[in-house]
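Researcher: I'd like a candidate sequence for this fold, 138 residues long. If you have to choose between options at a position, lean toward the conservative one.
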């Protein structure tokens, strides 16, 4: 199983994004078992609403298109467990809150890979991999 960070989803569908080709290469070689959380979906709504002048209907359609185009599935987690685990790992990983929450979803969901372009997560990939056995790809 692979957890896909929101920044990779956006780079994948935006052909003008500097990381578009990297996102396409990463996601297209993983044919199945790609997951996102409700947090990712909320982030998509947030990014699209801040960067584009779209109606609610258009934003809904763009989010659905993004999820379908990237072939990701929504993973269901108990958020109380995510928050509890985030408190335990916060001082180990030293990440921003949303990055930490994404990573906790991946841990709780037993993902083998975490796909991201986030510089902070990539910088801490060694400690993340040592602590969790999740391989960071980006």
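Model: Candidate sequence:
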């Amino acid at each position: 199983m692979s957890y896909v960070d929101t920044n990779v989803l956006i780079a994948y569908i935006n052909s003008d994004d500097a990381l578009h080709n990297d996102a396409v290469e990463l996601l297209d070689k993983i044919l199945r078992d790609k997951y996102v959380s409700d947090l990712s979906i909320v982030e998509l709504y947030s990014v699209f609403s801040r960067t584009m002048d779209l109606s609610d209907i258009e934003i809904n359609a763009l989010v659905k298109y993004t999820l379908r185009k990237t072939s990701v599935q929504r993973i269901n987690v108990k958020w109380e467990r995510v928050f509890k685990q985030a408190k335990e790992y916060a001082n180990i990983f030293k990440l921003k809150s949303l990055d930490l929450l994404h990573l906790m979803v991946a841990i709780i969901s037993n993902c083998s890979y975490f796909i991201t372009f986030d510089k902070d997560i990539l910088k801490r990939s060694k400690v993340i991999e040592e602590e969790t056995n999740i391989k960071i790809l980006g």
